[in-house]
Structure prediction request, 146 residues.
Amino acid sequence: MSVDYANAVLRPALSHPPASQPLVLAVDDNKDNLLVLTHALKLFGYAYISTQEGQSVLPLAQSHQPALILLDVVLRDLSGVDVLQHLKQDSSTKHIPVIAVTALTCVEACEQLLQLGCSDCLHKPYSLKALEALLRQHVNPALLAS
Prediction:
């Protein structure tokens, strides 16, 4: 599989952020949604990698080993479900918690994502308070210690 890293962004420019700044991989094909998400991550004290391409998620997760992945379910190039399945089938990424970020409002959709391996669902539009609560719940608390 050929991966285009042109749309992948690492902030701050660190390959391994300090323990006080856990790394989150944010995935959304909508540039505005991704901007809001990454600004919130920065506000909450997380380092982040962001991409708009579903195909770049697995290689980024393999190489950077983020503490958490925030995954939009509907992507242009590869569905979030396919991305999730690739992550959960790979021995180097299957342990990484994935929160599905979705505009799908039916309970069944979230239940299916949880059955496929998501740790939780965050429904769009979401509040920053809800995002922060999920981050704190699913990122290893030891990584959040200052």
About this structure: Residues 22-140 form a domain with the Rossmann fold fold (CATH 3.40.50.2300). Residues 1-6, 10-16 have pLDDT under 50 and may be disordered. Strands lie at 9-11, 23-27, 47-51, 68-72, 98-102, 120-123.
